[in-house]
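Our consortium's second objective concerns turning raw sequence data into structural hypotheses that experimental partners can test. To show how far this objective has progressed, the report includes one record in full. It was chosen at random from the queue rather than selected for favorable results. The single chain below, 246 residues long, was entered without modification.
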Amino acid sequence: MFLANTPKANSIKEVFLSWKADEFYGDYWRKRVALGHILTEGTLARMRIASGLVDEVLPPKGKVLDIGCGEGVFAQFMKEKRKDAVLIGIDVAEEAVRLADQHYHLVRKGDVEDSLPEEVKNHAPYDVVVCLEVLEHLFNPLNALRRVVALLKGGGYVVASFPNFVHWRTRLRVLMGQLPYGYWLLDPAEHPQIFNLTRFKKLLKEAGLHILRVKGIYSKRLRWVRILPFCVTVFAYQIVTLAKKE
């Protein structure tokens, strides 16, 4: 009886991914809200840079899809710059969708590794897709990014960011035999992927994107290092990229 009803491998994977999304990130967001850990210095800097890049390339009344929109901070920054922009958001966690609902024209629960909500796909093609601190959370970021690129107009843009695993503080801690402090927020399981700039550029290229801009985020005491030629790869703890669909 049990053997006759044993699910196929794909079904097992789907069940696992569904559990991970609903349970893990549902709990993740409840903890963040309980701790009051919504806005951090890194979050504000990332949103400021990302919204500025989007503002540079977004046409009048352009459409933006925010993948992993979280509590809606990007939308708040974007509304200050472009009140005419159409902002669509998705997130894997119900709690995040609830928090973000007031900031987007449409926000839905969805998993970019599975299938996006029909309402979100119906708004395609998009001028810009935003993936801020998302791809390191995924089991197969390349497939997810290709799915995202397919929603873009020809010549559309992706603004994506990631925590830089090889910045100087992480290098020192690993050298001393310690785990990299600050690479995740609440649990090491948050990030099945680790990225440096080289690997992230390769990912974007394989997804059919051409990188136009790279911007680093630095701690306040180290902002002077931006004059150094290797500053982004070594000293930026987060990196934001602008890429164009080829």
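The partners drew two points from this record. The chain has one domain: 3-245. Confidence is low (pLDDT under 50) at residues 1-13. Both points have been shared with the crystallography group to help prioritize constructs.
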